[in-house]
Amino acid sequence: MNAAGPQISREIVPAATIRRLCHYALGGAGLFSAIVLLLHFFRPEYDPVTRFISEYAVTDPVVACVAAVSLALGSMALIRALTLALPREHRSRAGMVLLWIYAVCFAGVGFFPADEFPTINPPSWHGAVHAILGLISFSCFSAGSLLTSLRLRRTPSWNKTAPLLITLAALNVAFFFIFYGGLEHIMGLIERIYVVFVIAWIVIVARKLMIDVAAPAGGVAETTIQ
């Protein structure tokens, strides 16, 4: 132990723990995607080009809540897996905090149903809360995923994956501004493209973590907690 420097403790994290968290992340993203796709078929009255995904909560609030909370919990599992699997110097502290804010706010999005746009004016209290949480959630994921992806370039095993993640995160940032840019005639389509990028980022990160933890001998992954 070096008395002149900070003490460092090492915790051995079983690969099974990280792998299980990644399965939760994939499960949450998969359930969200499946529910949203099914709602497109069962609620054809909502034009996917002009109507928000969250408007499905007007007719199916419980189903929409399950979808949002599933993605939020899956995202939390992924953030935890990243924290356990990556050394501290390979994690963006700001990026991780922003991703946590995104996940918590997105869970709230599910519990506060949206209003039907644009027929409700002024919006209901829960519609206003939904809109605020949605704005915070989308903005935090856009910035957090970009910061996290940029920092992952420092990890040798992520050299090939990081450029793809950076591209997806940059597209998230771009589509965030496009989404809130007032293009009402295609806002539903823009939101759906944005969500596809979000799901893709989550799936790619989860799959990469699962591949990495399968590599060490002995079935364990080691993380440094400072």
Task: Provide structural commentary.
The protein is mainly alpha-helical and 226 residues long. It has one domain. Helices cover 66% and strands 5% of the residues. The chain is built from seven helices and two strands; from the N terminus they run βαααααααβ. Strands 1-2 form a two-stranded antiparallel sheet. The longest helix has 28 residues. It is globular, with a radius of gyration of 19 Å. It starts with 8 loop residues before the first strand and ends with a strand. The N terminus and C terminus are likely disordered.
Summarize the structure.
The chain is 66% helix and 5% strand.
Specify the biggest β-sheet: 2 strands, antiparallel
Number of domains: 1
Please report which band the strand proportion falls in: under 5%, 5-15%, 15-25%, 25-35%, 35-45% or over 45%: 5-15%
Query: What is the chain-wise order of helices and strands?
Result: EHHHHHHHE
- The count of β-strands is 2
The whole-number mean of residue pLDDT values reads 87
Low-confidence stretches: 1-10, 217-226
Structural class by sheet pairing and helices: mainly alpha
Shape designation? globular
CA distance, first residue to last residue: 14 Å
In helices, the fraction of residues equals: 55-70%
* Radius of gyration, in angstroms, nearest whole number: 19 Å
User: Strand order, biggest sheet?
Assistant: 1-2
Number of H- or I-type helical stretches: 7
